[in-house]
Amino acid sequence: MTNARRVAIFGGTHGNEMSGITLVNLWIKNGKEIQRKGVETKPFITNPRAVEKCTRYVDTDLNRAFTTENLSAPSGDDLPYEVKRAQQINEIFGPKGSPDAYDVIFDLHNTTSNMGCTLILESSKDHFNLQMMHYIKKAIAPDSCPVLLTEHPLLKYSTSRSVAKHPIGLEVGPQPQGVLRSNIFESMRVVLKHALDFIELFNEGLEFPPCSVDVFRVWDKMDYPRDTNGNIIAMVHPNLQDCDWEPLNPGDPMFQMFDGTTVRYEGVGTVYPTFINEAAYYEKQQAFVTTRRETLVAGAIKKA
Ligand SMILES: [Zn+2]
């Protein structure tokens, strides 16, 4: 690639995830902190109506709305608000998949799960993003910064950031919906600082040698146990609650039924659960996501 000149920072893709909304609003007022030499950085609130209502979305989840079908739908008043919004965002920052699209989009999210400061990678072949994540991990060590790879034929979805050539999600928690916590706010801010520093160094012509990056690849999703009417009949087991990124082995407790009995994990081999007990995923029939560990290799990159 030639350079990473156009960079956007999205907040409010989910209107009740307060760290990204607050940071982006701060930077819209004063962008000094996110300015870097040779980079044009645009902070942007993606779902202003949901932010105003402090709700995840108004009609439908914006972070699932960037499908080819939605983006090419004839515009009209009958479209859900978030689909119209996706079309506008695609016009400003895309078009998705075209040479005119923004180089990098950071999309700032919070989770109620104990995921720490997670970077979300959409493609194992995105060497630019892998190099950036390697750089960020090194910069914030000894603090950790897990990378979640969402490359999965069925579980991948059409995110707001997917409009960019290099989409990066930031998922920081635990933080309740509608709440701002200083530690979560600060760790998001620090990761973004390092990410922008990396882009500046890249644009200055620095060569990044080959490196390897440990990632957690999305494997499967687990729903809560339910009765025949679809009602949830168990909770995340206390041994699993807050244990995002820790190994879950066959036979380990997974759910606690309301009568006190334990439901154990019966899959094959060790998995690493994440998004454990995420509030927004109850409606998506998802108690947590399982992942497997993998090491990816990033080739050397240098501005052409
Ligand atoms: Zn979110």
Counting helices, strands and paired strands, the structural category is: alpha/beta
Assess the beta-strand content as a share of residues. Answer: 15-25%
> Roughly how much helix do the residues carry, as a percent range?
10-25%
CATH topology of the domain at 6-215: Aminopeptidase
On the 0 to 100 scale, the average pLDDT is: 96
Family: Belongs to the AspA/AstE family. Aspartoacylase subfamily.
InterPro entries: AspA/AstE_fam, Aspartoacylase, AstE_AspA_cat, Aste_AspA_hybrid_dom
Protein name: Aspartoacylase
Binding site for substrate: 63-64, 157-161
Entry summary:
The chain is of the alpha/beta class.
Tell me what you see in this structure.
- With 304 residues, the protein is an alpha/beta fold.
- The protein has a domain at 6-215: Zn peptidases (Aminopeptidase, 3-Layer(aba) Sandwich).
- Helix content is 23%, strand content 23%.
- Strands 2-1-3-6-4-5-7-11 form an 8-stranded mixed sheet. The protein has a 3-stranded antiparallel sheet with strand order 8-9-10, with no helix packed on it.
- The chain binds zinc ion.
- The site of zinc ion has 4 residues, from loops.
Present the secondary structure layout.
Layout: E1 6-11, H1 18-29, E2 40-45, H2 48-53, H3 68-71, H4 81-93, E3 104-110, E4 116-121, H5 127-140, E5 147-149, E6 166-173, H6 182-203, E7 211-222, E8 234-236, E9 253-257, E10 262-264, E11 288-298
Parallel strand pairs: 1-2, 1-3, 3-6, 4-5, 5-7
Antiparallel strand pairs: 4-6, 7-11, 8-9, 9-10
Helix pairs in contact: 1-6, 5-6
Bound molecules: zinc ion.
